[in-house]
Amino acid sequence: MYIYPRLQRQFYLKPLFYRYAKSKLNLSQLSLNRPLTKAAYAPQEVIDLKRGFDDEIYWEESKARIKQQCTYQNAHSLFSKFKNNNSHDSDGLFENPYLDSPKGLRQFSKDSLKYAHELVNKMKSDTSKDGLTKYVLRLDQLSDTLCRVIDLCEFIRSVHPDNSFIEAAQSCHEEMFEFMNILNTDVDLCKTLAYVLEDPEISAGLSQEEMKVGKILLEDFKKSGIYMNPEARDQFISLSQDISIVGQDFITNVDVVQDSYISVPVRDLDADEVSPVVINQLSKDITGYHYKIPCYGSIPFILLRTCQNENIRSKIWSSLHSSSKEQINRLTQLVKLRAILARIMRKDSYAAYQLEGKMAKNPHDVKMFLESLIQFTRGATAKELKPIADMKCKSLGDPLPQNDEEVFLNVRPWDRDYYSFQLKSQKEQNKPFQSPPLSMYFTIGSVIDGLSDIFQKIYGISFALSPTKPKEIWAPDVRKIIVTSEKEGPIGVIYCDLFERQGKPSSPAHFTVCCSREMYSKENNEKIMQIGVDSNDVKFQLPIISLVCSFTRSSEGACLLQLNEIETLFHEMGHAMHSMLGRTKLQNISGTRCATDFVELPSILMEHFARDERVLSNIGRHYLSGEQVPINLVRDQLRESSFLQNCETFAQAKMSMLDQRLHDEDVIENIDTLNVVKIYQDLEKELKVLVDDKTNWCGKFGHLFGYGATYYSYLFDRAIAAKIWDHLFAKNPYSRDNGDIFKNNVLKWGGLKDPWNCVADVLDNPELKKGDTNAIKYIAEVEDL
Ligand SMILES: [Zn+2]
Q1: Which residues, 6 or more positions from 337, have their beta carbon under 8 angstroms from its beta carbon?
Q2: How far is the CA of 6 from the centre of ligand 1 (A)?
Q3: 42, 48, 556 from 466: Cα distances, Å
Q4: pLDDT tens digits, one per residue of 190-209
Q5: 555-594 confidence digits (pLDDT tens)
Q6: How far is Cα 13 from Cα 719, in angstroms, rounded to an integer?
Q7: Which domains are assigned to the chain?
Q8: Is 627 marked active-site?
Q9: 21: CA distance to ligand 1 center in Å?
Q10: How far apart are the CA of 602 and the centre of ligand 1, in A?
Q11: CA-CA to 588 of 20 to 30 Å: which in 1, 62, 644, 715?
């Protein structure tokens, strides 16, 4: 329960108008506003993908060489007529000519806001039939305009190293957000939308896609309380604000520990096997009879792994998992406010309010999914814990556990790390020789190259490194990849900011800077776009993605990835492919802009590739000798990394269930006597595995705010991904036919096609189209998540 899942990496839940972001982008290398054809975009010289990431000197030299060639060719090329255009020579973040400075960012935001106002005025004044037919398209354009600024600002705030850029991004973000909130509660905008969708004559002129987007937006308006009487709406708005304030406060205090240290008798710890190096770092209390064990830093975790005394471990573990009274009050307040909001919205529970429009349509189905998963995983969990239980019983001189129940009774949460460590040490001792670390065979360049190879084989698309202009990137070691399809030429751009840097967030993330959509008939500002052409010769806006990780380079500059880091990179690239291969006309439903409990599917599917021994042995080459990775080393590491994996799944299921219970109808019914800690501990006792009946850990579960009633999404997508892997790729991870099936049934649709239809088509199981209780049960029955 201390390991946060991948879902944390990208936060997709966004308020109305903000779901859709996209952004900036701009001129191609050689031409302005011209579609990027293969020929126009192909670098003059191919930069070796692997070396381009692994060898900083090679990368810098390649950039310089290509720059020289381009300068010469531009001066003499057919495109030189563009040279007089200001933007051709200009340079800014993501090639957006505005973004060459914080001042430019402010100007970009100002101009975008002005354009958004113009659009709103047009939408309100143009009541002609033609105007109403274009209404949904204009709404799409409006959210596009706002989100290209907001998403950009979010990216800059999180990743940009320059404070003046961050400050500008902060103020632009606030300004845009405020305007967006006004739009979200604009009754006229909503009424016209409802009219457009209902009037038979007008709706007959809308495409299937426009109808879908119109309906999604109308639902969002309704969820913002637009149809309520003014009094109730004011209440809704004020509750939403309170929830946001309390929630932020809750998040900020998640890591605050209740006590700064715990006290343990000197004689107990001195009698233990704990290393004297650790003991020497501890201070004693005033009496001299007690050690003060800090509740922060690495010491408590070392003790959890190495201290034999269960009493001490239990004390440390409990202290690390406890929250303050104030924090529990914050959580109680948050849960109550949400319950009140649900009541105002006339829903049975906050979960019911949140789950509308999701794949798992209601709280009943989510709980059933989790219960099935829990039942399905319990046996495997007991099997994993058995060696731990046996070891513990032996060391205490107790009889060995005879069944699953006895295993669960014996192994407590504070035993897990200690006995796991003992088991591992035993295994290490029994090994005939020490094997080299797997990471020696996986440089970052070889992994990116391996990803390109997989995508080439399954989707017919590949990566090419492209040189960057000085202000196009925010840090010198950012690499730009042009994603190219065999059939369509360039289909998108990925900026890879993958190396550790001071002040950079450590959790990996995928930022959509700009998503794919068809060109509007009249674009307001083509110079900030980059344009591609699809296989039907239709021009579209190229998606732009930024992948941010924080991988460490050795002192000689080598960046070697561990198995979990390879998985991370594959995961994030899975999101990127969703953005690259999405082919919708409107940006509201492009690529990753789909149901929030469906969005992790493509990325989790990629994790299966990262754990496949055939894939790993194809990629792995020793970073010095070039020797292929020994298959036994791969197998050993895969086995080791799956240690206690079912326990981890079970822990995630418990957390997801807690998230449901804290947002269900019982909370509304018993709001006056609400006791969140009791709900947590009761659930722990009910589910039995690694039971925590001592702490109030729920105060440390920060995702309760961000995901409120949707935390199950990660497990849900893991279950679907496992089914799809088995069905399409387990036999052959490089199958083009099956890659096409996944691409054509899932990736290209974004949010246009119902996710259950996507899953049914991919799995060749039409029954799943119903998305009913049986479908959910089928998904939950899965081994090896
Ligand atoms: Zn993700």
Answers
A1: 239, 242, 243, 246
A2: 5
A3: 9, 10, 24
A4: 999 999 999 999 999 999 99
A5: 888 899 999 999 999 999 999 999 999 888 888 888 888 8
A6: 21
A7: 99-230 (1.20.1050.40), 261-322 (no CATH)
A8: no
A9: 17
A10: 9
A11: 715
